[in-house]
What we know:
alpha+beta, 6-stranded mixed beta sheet, 25 helices, 10 strands, elongated
Amino acid sequence: MTADEESEEKEVPEMATLLEDFGDETMTELGFFSWRPKFLKVFNKPNIFTTVHAFNSFFLVFSITIFGTVLPTLESVFNLNGKEAGYILVANDISGMLAALFLANYCSARKIRWMGIGAVLAGIASLIPVLATAFAEYPVPELKTKDNIAYATCNEEDSSTDESFGDVAQRNHRLYGLFVIGSILQGIGSTPPGIAGSTYLDEIYKQKGFGIAISLIYIVSILGYPCSLLIGGSFLSMYVTPNAPDGITMDNSRGWVGNWWLGMLIPGIVLVFGSFLISFFPRHMHSAKAVLEDKIKRGVTTASEKQGELGQSMKDMTKEMIPTFKRMFKNKALIFFVLGDICLYLDYSAVPFLPKIFSMLYRLDITYTTKLLGFVNIGGFLLGLIPGAIFIKRKHWEAKRLMLVYFFLSIISAPLMLGGLLVYCSPNQHAGIDLPYPETSGLNLTQTCNLDCSCTTSIYQPVCDGDITYFSPCHAGCKEVEADEKSADSSLVKIYKDCSCTESKTAKPGKCKKHCQDRMWISMALWLAGLIVNFAGFPAHAIVSQRIVSESDRTATQGLISGATRMFGKLPAPLIYGALFDATCSAWRQSENGTEGFCWIYDIERFLMLFISVILAVRVIRSISYGLAWWLFPTEDKATKQFTEIEMK
């Protein structure tokens, strides 16, 4: 008898024992515990699970990325600086990293249960920050009228402070902890879908179907980001509470605060509901039996290997943890792949800050910026991810070739996206910050011409004279104001007069306008091209992450990737980017008690130089790592032999 025949004979009893699970209704039918009604059988299909998983993944990504959309508003309302905003994201990554290390070893036999727990935790995490709006104080917005347009001019006794802005924001800072708690739960809840979800899909679909399913999950989930920009941006054009005075809009009032919490409330409710939907699915679908038999025939796994994975107790899983990690660390291709993914997450962790960055670069309103980025990202997603998924479906390439495809696409996308950042508008020059006041030499907001005005930085209301922007009418030394009589409600300032600090002795409301629409659209075109190339490689990346290790180690590998990318990628990234913002701040908001909080003005050119340097370094390391992962990646036949030898040892 040959060795192969002996092996087949040994596999028969183990295969029979393994397939007994597929006859147990509590493991293969939809429902909860022993309640498995027959009418639910119609939903016991892989495509139904994929649809529900995609639905949850969309709102999970939406709930995470909505934070970046509303970040500038949160910084203003709750008086947060860049580091404090970064700490919120760091809390997410620390909890997610710990959850990943746990789930890597303990969720392989109970994937659906952990996915349900994760969805409900993510939903609660989105709802916790919403509580802040019930306790936060908001200034009542006022229409700009002839009676109050002299606001923040030099002749007002209280022009130096504005209690309804700086000091209210300082009091709201006490609610900062709610955002941290929500972020911690968000990190825990967002981990199971990535680890358990992808491996469950691999169990219920054959090789061709898995590629299509994982691509669909990527397509739908990534769509959550641009949708959060579009929807979140639309919500910001609404007032934060329902009791705004009639006729109040962003343009005709002061004290306006956009609705930041509605974009968190909706995904929170949906994810709690989605957790029940995903929990209905069984431990094993009926299709898993045929998929397992196919994998055993192809030599991808063995019956004993799979039986060991599914039949392990918590004690067995703990005992197997060290050998599993030893096998993974001997896989050189995996090590470089993980290093590349760490750099990938260092890069992508800048996403929450993009609306703020682009609004700085092109002097755009944050609401308009979020919507614009939303459309650009949807375009990149549709033109990149979908063709990438179709390409994989038609080509049926082995994992090593897909690794090479992703390697080249990651290289091509870098100059396009970084080039989009370099085509920026020249920043406004602020008197006392970027250049001296007329007829002075020092950089200081307080000058002889406005010394008697007692101005501070509690409120930013820029005015312009010539090519010089002043922090506020008070800082320009303006004592009189003229209303625009042609305005429908006579609410808009036409011009400030008797300005002791400006050359013309007058000033116009707003920053000095410089035409740079052409640069903005060139930047958006380059950014879109980079996104198309970037998204096109995502389906290949998803398949490689599953095929780079043996069948039995796939759940643990997803945990390793998730834990490593969070610990070394997503964890330090918010602190790095938050520190870049704080280091390049030129003017901080100052409350009445002298406390500094939100930054009003940034040194844009210095920030961009530092930001691009960081991203470029990360991209170079990322490309080298993925290149080495491809070089060391074994072919399919060699991979099966290599994984078998490692496991036998």
